[in-house]
Give the backbone structure.
Amino acid sequence: MTDRHQMRRLSIIGALAAATLTLAGCSLDATSPNDPNETDVLKSRDGIAFLAVGLQARFADGMDDFVYPNGLVTDELGATTLALPSYRDTQIGSLVPSYDPVELPWRTHYRTIRQADELITATRALPVDDVVLDTATKNGVLAMSYLFKAMSYGDLLQQYEKIIIDPENASAPFVDRATSLAYTNALLDSAAAIYRAQPAGATFNNTIKARGFDLRNTIFAMQARYRRLAHDDAGALAAADSVNQTVLSSMPFTYPQTRNPINNLSLGAGYVKPRDQFRLAADSANANDGRKAYFVTVAAPASFYPAYPLDEFNQYANRSAPIPFYYPGEIALIRAEALTNLGRLPEAADAVNAVRTKCNAAPTGDPEACLPPLPLASLATPAELLAEIYTQRRFELFATGLRWEDVRRLGQVGAGLSAQRCWLLYPDSERQTNPQTPADPESPDAPSGPKSCGV
Amino acid sequence: MHRCVRRWLPTLLALAGAALAAPGGLSAQAGTTGSVRGRVTDAASGATLGGVQVVLEDTRLGAITRDNGEYVIAGVSAGAHVVVTRRIGYAAARQTVQLATGATATADFSLRAAAVNLDQVIVTGTAAPTSRRALGTSVGAVDSTALSNSGAISPDVALQGKIAGAQVIQNSGNPGGGGVSVRLRGTSSIVSGSEPLYIVDGVIVDNSSDQIVDLGARSNVQNRLADVNPADIERIEVIRGAAAAALYGSRANNGVVQIFTRRGRPGKTRVSFQSNYSTEKVGKRLELNDYPFDAAGNPVTRYDYQDDIFTTGTRSDNQLSFEGGSDLTTFYFGANYANEDGIISGSSFLRRGARLNLTQQVLPQLKVDVGANFVNTHDEFEPNGEQTTGVLTAVLFTPTTFDFHRRANGTYPFAPTGATFANPLAAIANFRNPQDVNHFIGNARAHATPLHNLAMDFNVGYDGYGLEINQFIPRNNLPSELGGRAFTAVRDSRTLNTDAVATLTTHAGDDFEFQSSIGTNYTNQRISTVSGSASNLLPSLDVLSAGATTTAGQSRVDLLTFGYYGQQTVSWRDRLYLNGAVRVDGSSTFGRDQRYQTFPKLSASYVVSDEPFFQRLKSDHGISSLRLRSAIGYAGNQPSLDNAYAYANLAQRIVLDTLVGISFSTRLGNPGLKPERSREIEGGFDLGLFHDRASLEVTAYDKRVSDLLLPRQLRPSSGYTSQLANIGEMSNKGLELLARTVNVDRPMLRWESTVTYSTNRNRVDKLIGAPFTVGYANRVQQGQPIGIFYGQYYQRNADGSIKVDPNTGRPLRSGLLSNPALQQKKIGDPNPDFLASLLNEFKFGSSVHARILFDGSFGNDVLNFSRRILDIFGTGRDAQRELLPLGDPRRLPAGYVAGRGSIFEEYVEDGSYVKLREISLSYALPTRLAGRAGLGAVEITASGRNLYTWTRYSGYDPETNLFGTSTVGRGNDFATYPIPRVFTVGARLTY
């Protein structure tokens, strides 16, 4: 073998090796063309605006997670034959910690809370720019973020006995209801304060806020709701008085872009439907109650438990039906309850009767009983008033998820009563990943008799 | 073209040019060469043998024999040369020739049939073509004779029962292959897929089987390998694990299947026309409730819609090919037209395609070849899958008293089971789900030998397809879509890959040979999908623009992989071989901190029987050859397409009413993401007995996958629920056995048998976080095989019988809700204990050829979800027992079968089976007769595929999987399109 051959061979090998090595430097970076990067989103004004829109959509996505577990545990909703075991078992109060009705409310609400938190931090950090993010828009985004965060906590504390209110901290303890309620009310106070300082402007109203969502009235309505929960009658009354009861505030859906999630579960998948219990109870109270037909239609679809026949939703029969954040009737009834507790009984009676007699009045699109007023004589004592208020709450607030709290207060939890259990279990996924998770407040199985929930 | 390639290509071309043009490069051997020629025949029959590879040892020179058995090797330098012949099924033979300058030497060979194949050349998994004897790993190889007459319409289906250690499952009987899932040495991943890497002539091809359109939830569509025509295939090589596949780096964890297409050989142009005609039938039908009374004892009419749904399918498969060439040019052209009408009315598959392969010796030192394969397929799918619009689904879900037939007014009644469920007869008559695919696979390769001991290969490959799939539900056919619905998805997939490798062979004395290789590989894959849907359609129209409301979507994924490798082989006296290699791989899917990963391998092979001391054993014990081998290697598995950007924290688009917003994801990005990594150790031996008339290949392996990608569960209260992370571990241990025998080798009868046996034990060794269930009941649990069935079970009496509720007579399900840990348990395992196959081949004289292949899977369970639905809806034969008159001993209490619906234990069945996978009988007309008809040869074949199944399984077919290629979701049967029995007659005419 000659030297020349050797040289040539070596040079070829060398050149190939060199080619190889130059290639090693070539870029293999690929960024997703499909999804925005979170870090980039938080740095831009456009990103903030889109996140603010997304925050409302996030909350919308979880609205059914407050309605159907609560409805199944109470006497409002029932499982059809198509339903999965998790829905069927929830109806009889038996839970497994990995069931969707246990997991999903927790997950979706904390997901909303994280987005609200990041949005608040990023919005506060962004310099104000009159073109894109003027002060009014910024305040609108902030007030709305506090509101949705508060509503998420408010839902959670009506489903789980203890919750976390500092979720960014991995070792945050689970706090009791008094603490979480106080925190929720503080968040609502922040929202109200920011809103009062300068109401959201046209940019916010036209490009960020959902159609049909009324920021101002929803903030005060939620203050009324959660002050009532905290037994703060004066506060609840003041907040309720701030709500303009002729205005509706609801989450909109436009099928097929978005679908009302309750319609989807009830009529799309067909898993969960109203129990005829609501209609029958309304009948026995007053056969002419206009709210029966508002909420349900008589249909008798197949029920998994033959003892619990079902109806169909009328309110959510449309895939694009909006879901209200609250009904004006709830505000009227919160007023009535606060007035009762404050000893202003005649005003309370008027407030209850206003709910009973609402008929073809503004606003339209909310439930209307169209009933005659009750004589003041039968609404003379606090006990009479409260009984009527809770009766009206039951028929006025069907399928809002609020009934569970009411039956807890009325002591109607237990076998054969209006609700099958006091609380959801803590989700399995939280227990697996968070050593702070407390012991479950109740057994996975339904209690065998009446029990007190201590609220 | 990607900038990496742009930068790389000129460098390489310049390099190749320089090597060739270098002084003396071209002329080094000119004027001093002669040629070697000869003829090769079969020793038993004396017939000439075409397609025999004849090479000169220690050079890159060689030729393939023509049909008349003759070959010529030109450009041979003067001196002594060893001529070696290789052909599958025959023992290698060697002769030494002395060649004078400018002269021609003759070397004729007469080859003996042999079951040992130590000299077969393997290309896959090594930097340079290597004979089997030098490989430290076991490689599966199947040649065209084993693929033809298989009755399979796609090449992956044709592999069933032919490779030890390969579990090839046809997921459904959908026309066009039905979706195929291949597991080589078990499952090696949970979230990144466990299908092997497919390569066609050096081109990495996309074999995805994504369900782009929802034909009824989890319907099994075909995978894109269905576009490759089995008749074009010359041979398939299968390397099963990391030890053999380390050179493919981060994509080879699941093994590699390389397909080589026909390239033609010198000689008279051979024109061949083959036409097959098949009929297809459903193997078995479900027994439905046909009791003529209802629960109240009133007479009722009952219907069995299987009568309306199943039909006799037909298939025709036509192939025209030309092959031939000169000593400098060879070509193969094949055109194919296949049409399959499936056993479910209205389902069909049509494939039209052609392939051209051209090889040209441009210069004595430079050979180029190009391959181009264009295919168009058209499918008509019928809705199928677990829910809603599926045709068979409706049979399970609908009580047999319901009349689906078309009414006098021309309309079909809606299904009684829900607004989203279809009337199956309306679905067959009115729904349409057409799919069109235009697929091109092409490659261009240059093979240069600038020096007699230096070979350089450069290959550019392209695999691209455009797929359009549509779904059309006309108005008034589905209650949930009364206005009708149209859906269209268009996918464009492009994979470009470039490979370069150089191999230098040197010697040290007479005993040592060194082979050094370096190479690079770059792959750029882009998959882009555009989809749209419309509802409330104008009457009779099925395009998106006919709808009142329309939606659209688009996604694009880029995958970039760049790797380089080096390999060093040392061989000692052609009997001891050591091989070491390293590949370094980078991928766009890895986190920046983990961009480049290293995959080494080491292997050894020792042909003990070539040792002088072994000669005595040979005669004494009938052992004719023995080779020992062992290897260790590492390979990876990249995050799948779904997780191509999982290293980043990505937000998502979310729609609020009519506004668009951004939603934060629940998945946290992982900047430290890297490939799953498996380390495989294998060892084994190849034994030849009785003058190599019998061979036994035994291989044991231990494959451990670490850095297994799994979603790490995060605290949901943080707002995140998971993060994809390299946190798991899994292992596969197993044994593979391949035995071949030439039982009889006489002029009038050759009888050969092949047995494969393999067993694999999978175990999830480490799982961070809680066990989880995929699909219905497939569980991932530490310490258990992947995908075990896990669920509720019967409460039992002391004697083992099922405990029933004393009040209702219904069975009691396991556990109490208050003790969920006790509620569920392992109730089955879809992983087989072992797989086995038996092939017998007979050649009677030169004209009659028979093959019979049995293929079995043993010890695997199947979750029969179809039967569960039959129970819940009272549709099946068991539900009928509740209707029997009181006092009938077979009567079951009312609600019994529906009551066991949530007890999954009931539906786990033994899915073991043995199938008569292939049987064929061919008759070649005597040449004299064929010649009289103006033909070279005429062959007539009758064959069958999946003609009979021996099984205890109660459903259509235990070979099925609703979840397709899923890693965890295995062995689920739910309204799946059954695999048909296929009878074929065919003829091949050759000019």
In short: The CA atoms of residues 340 and 382 of chain A lie 6 Å apart.
